[in-house]
Design a protein that fits this description.
Helix content is 49%, strand content 13%. It folds into two domains: 175 residues, NAD(P)-binding Rossmann-like Domain (Rossmann fold, 3-Layer(aba) Sandwich); 142 residues, N-(1-d-carboxylethyl)-l-norvaline Dehydrogenase, domain 2 (Orthogonal Bundle). The chain is built from 14 helices and eight strands. The chain is α/β, with parallel strands linked by helices. It has an eight-stranded mixed sheet, with helices on both faces. The chain is globular. Bound molecules: NADPH dihydro-nicotinamide-adenine-dinucleotide phosphate and 1,3-dihydroxyacetonephosphate. Pfam families: NAD_Gly3P_dh_C (PF07479), NAD_Gly3P_dh_N (PF01210). Its main location: cytoplasm. It is an enzyme of class 1 (oxidoreductase).
């Protein structure tokens, strides 16, 4: 049993992870940026902005003072990838040398093209544990069955994070393939968008799942070329998460793809919804180009979302490459 585990970012994933780990620790200290979220959780046990109908467990307490995390044994970072650098820079001077950082963000830094564990290493000098899997937050927050892959170069960190996450309902697969687990989460968002486009444009199901087959094979190639292991794609972070986000409308990235497939334009920024995959498309396209990698799924998604090419025309080109 742990005593003091923290979670930074009180959105969908932060609330869901808190509900998962609270079984294995005396207290979860959940950091929220906004005071009203802290008040809502501490006074009512509801995070009303994200899950107004779910009463959180009693040992989840919120704070908006990062300094209160100074005694944390483990900190889960449940933030958009765009703010991981800024937040870990602040945390560096607060946390103890033994504190373990766990990243759950499924993104890549836009300009540097660095993975989140690389960003965290640069800012704190620590080897982060990375977590990725079929983790629809709206399900996890209800403490239903779920799973995740975790990876870290530091075996002691990996074991501790496995202990805090493992419950009768939450399965953990531990690995040493940090690059593979991280890239699975990153690529999966782009795949979810690509499958959403197919669904939105109402391509027939045989066609959609034929290209999905190609996409799955390409994911293995990409992971290997980026330095990860092909087999990691068979794990929860790969197959599990790719299927989940590609076929369910609850995935925000999938929904974004459906809208583009239907040629419906939304103001993504104004919506306030986090679409991690949108920036990733541009980054992955550049990474493929820089490494002489051909990836039909990335090209298709880039053509529709970034170049604004008609989805039917883009699909025909995708089909040609099968
Ligand atoms: N939702 C899901 O099912 C899953 C999400 N993930 C990944 O987790 C990451 C977070 O996603 P998710 O929780 O869904 O996103 P949300 O938009 O639901 O939550 C993000 C949270 O981060 C907070 N935040 C933003 N900027 C800062 C900052 N500078 N300092 C402190 N807090 C900040 C937001 O605060 P505020 O409320 O004030 O805006 C919000 O509470 C993403 O990378 C996503 O891919 C992974 C698995 C599942
Ligand atoms: O990563 C997720 C589930 O595992 C959530 O996906 P979205 O960010 O597309 O909603």
């Amino acid at each position: 049993m742990f005593s003091n585990i923290s979670v930074v970012g009180a959105g969908a994933m932060g609330t869901a992870i808190s509900q998962t780990i609270c079984e294995n620790t005396k207290q979860v200290l959940l950091y929220a940026k906004r005071a009203e979220v802290v008040n809502s959780i501490n006074k009512t046990h509801f995070n009303k902005d994200y899950f107004p109908n779910i009463r959180l467990e009693d040992n989840i307490i919120a704070t908006n003072d990062l300094n209160e995390l100074k005694n944390a044994e483990i900190i889960f970072l449940t933030l958009p990838s765009s703010v991981i650098r800024e937040v870990t820079r602040k945390l560096k001077d607060i946390i103890s040398s033994d504190c373990i950082l766990v990243n759950t963000a499924k993104g890549i830094e836009k300009n540097s093209k660095k993975r989140m564990s690389e960003v965290i290493q640069e800012e704190t000098g620590k080897s982060a544990v990375v977590l990725s899997g079929p983790n629809i937050a709206a399900e996890m927050v209800e403490r239903t069955f779920s799973s995740a892959s975790i990876a870290c170069e530091n075996k002691e960190y990996l074991d501790k994070v496995e202990q805090v996450l493992s419950t009768p309902k939450f399965k953990v697969s531990a690995s040493n393939d940090v690059i593979g687990v991280e890239y699975c989460g990153v690529i999966k968002n782009v795949i979810a968008i690509s499958q959403g486009i197919c669904e939105g444009m109402k391509i027939n199901d045989n066609a959609r799942f034929s290209v999905f087959t190609k996409t799955f094979a390409e994911t293995k190639d990409l992971i290997e070329k980026f330095g990860g292991k092909r087999d990691t794609v068979d794990d929860y972070c790969g197959f599990g998460d790719i299927i989940t986000a590609s076929t369910l409308n609850v995935s925000r990235n999938h929904t974004l793809g459906v809208l583009y497939g239907q040629k419906i334009v939304i103001d993504e920024k104004a919506s306030g919804v986090l679409f991690e995959g949108k920036n990733t498309i541009i980054t992955l396209k550049e990474l493929c180009k820089n490494n002489n990698i051909d990836c039909a799924t990335v090209d298709f998604t880039y053509d529709v979302i970034i170049n604004g090419i008609n989805p039917k025309r883009a699909f025909e080109e995708f089909w040609e490459k099968l």
